[in-house]
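$ fold --in a.seq
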Amino acid sequence: MSKKKCSPETNIMKALMLENDLRSQEIEAKQIFDVIMMFQKQYAKFTSKIQQQIDTAFNDLKIISGGASDVTGLANISSKKIKEAIEGLSSQAETPNRDTDDISKILQSVHDDINGISEKVGRQAMEISSLLSFLDIIHITGEKAVGRLPYVESSVRKYNEINKQTLRNLTALANFLSQEKNIKTVGDKALLMGHDIAYPPWAHIEKGVSAGIGIEHAHQMGKSLERKQIFIADQWSKVYPKLIGGEVDVLISVGWPNRIFNKEPVIASKPYDQFRARLFTIDGVPTTPKDLRGKKVGVQKGSFSESLSVYFGLERVVFENDICGMVQLLWGNLGAVLVEEKVGTYLSEAFFMGKIKSASDVLESLDVVYLFREDSAELMEHFNSFIE
């Protein structure tokens, strides 16, 4: 029985699936590696901090020990003087003519000693308080470091799984390409739809196939247009030029309006959803922009969250992706992260065991649209008729 030969379109789809998986895994592996490295740096920082605190606590202990000896010595001397004073008073009772000045001098000396002891004890109490404070800090610091171990373990496991899957896909792609030497291109009727490869849950790659909220909407769109769809996934910095250069017909799940498109030869469809920016904190402790005065807020570079942080006057720390910001939030280096609500929830559950949660009202909304070249007005109108 002869083996059924696949059509050129089926072959190109297989190749695209494997390539998409590899690109997605490369980006995800880099993100997770960055997370692991950030955890490592934080552990090194905390280890150094704990050592400094232990050294300070040890010095406090030595001071307390020395202070205790001083107090004991003063107390012994004063006890002897008090005893002498009592004996002196007894003698005075038996001998009325004894010089009372001697007794007064003894009592004044005892009084001075008691003041000295009080001062020493006061300093001793301060040193003990300082020691207890440092011991408490050491405990909290150590607890914080240990508390992050599950997240590190989770990240390492995920990184290992992705590396294994990447190896399998590389092998599969190599075998596929060695068998299919002349893969033909897809016909002109196919609609080439580009999207960001790493913006879950709006658009990403899952088991080699484009997936997410925007992709599901695009599938329905393709059915209404009765055109075959080919999804082309890449990083935004690469997929956007493909739209301008004519390598793709439309981009999925784009935030609009955005000043970066002001002078670009692009047009947008009607909105079919919304991006909503919220503040995220550990365990979702409620917060507002006003609550974050004097605190740092993590934002993703080039995102509408970054622009929003400027509008609210927040002290922002810019990261390449939201995951890095969430790592710093876990270590207490940020007061919050400002991120699109669905993205924040997805990343928290995928990378941080759901520890980071939405903590504010929606601070800003942005329309989600399809983006076209300005010479594709007719295609855009087809999309608009479906969105209506």
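$ fold --in b.seq
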Amino acid sequence: IVKKVYQNILFEAKDLKNGLITVINDFKFIDISDQNYTFKWQLLKNGEKIAEADFTVGVKADSRKDVKLKLPAMEEKAGAEYFLQIFVYTKEATEFSSAGFETAKEEFAFEINDYFTTESKSGQLKTEEKNDKLFVKSGNIEYEFSLQDGHALLNIKNKDIHVFNELPRLNFWRAPTDNDFGAKEQYKMSLWNAASHNHIYSYKGKEEQNGVISLKYEAKLRGIEAKVALTYTVNADGSLTIDAKYQDLSDDLPEMMRFGMIMTLPKTVNNFTWYGRGPHENYIDRKYDAFMGIWNGKVEEQAFEYYRPQETGNKTDVRWLTLKDKNGIGIEVKGGQALSVSATNYKPEDLDAGMTKKQRHWKDVKARNETVLCVDLFQRGIAGLNSWGAKPLDKYRFLGEEYKYSYTIRFFE
């Protein structure tokens, strides 16, 4: 992050659709030329590289210059998005870096991007009502829902095997960071921790239309003047779409730490692939050095071992993710909008020291024997302008009265 902020070669989009960019030399006494730097661009479509090329440019110290890149034609259509990524490398080794060291980079999104669209799904569902429960089956996938107050989604099975150790449930909390402790958020926002574990479900009915079945519930946050409307839709192809709409019922609630859902799967489901920002962890106010792409890794590798355990492993602007075991069995999650996600072996309470910083180190935390997946709409920023009281900048905080998001889970058999 610091490297990206401090880079002395900058870029601006001047006429991006026609490949025109501006290269800014922020060095005060060093000219940029093909003698000291090489430049490269690559174009991504839906996370995959479709074109790339090297280019040269000469820019005097403390000045700028326009450059036209020969980009291929891009098709404007629903479900497609493009990103232009630019990289700068040193030509020769210095006392501080080797030849070929990446010294600057930038990324631009195109105005024609229109990624999030509704996909048509086909198939046939079978349903059965029994003992105040609804069973919905599509091939080898079977769902169980409550038809009375007190519960919502009860089970998901794939070939009679439970898909989740713990089904998706609402989550508003993260393990406080050092900066959260500096701002005393472990006191001010702790009610959201309790809200993550205390819901009162009310059954609101079901609808069957055009080959899909939707069940509606309301989750009242116990002791907090807020509620979440939940709709579970079993699509014709057997996938499950979850819509969550949060509504604030009071004017004096503190801002939310995060808004999303948490679930767990067997630890063997540990092959993690995602289309979003990566490959390292990133947050809403710490993300522009993490470029868009299709990334992959083991779940065990996603948590950063901070000296003091705290929130870790998040990925922003995620379009979809998959979690699979060695046999390719697992799940896919697609966002109805950009998601903030993490897949680690830790729940927030595993990394949460409580109301005071304990003298804990990473070696004191035991990894769970399961994969913990968080699928969020957002997580607040992680830092302010200092670490002893400042909150994140307002644009990275969430003070609204209403938020809604959706995602769809598909199952690999």
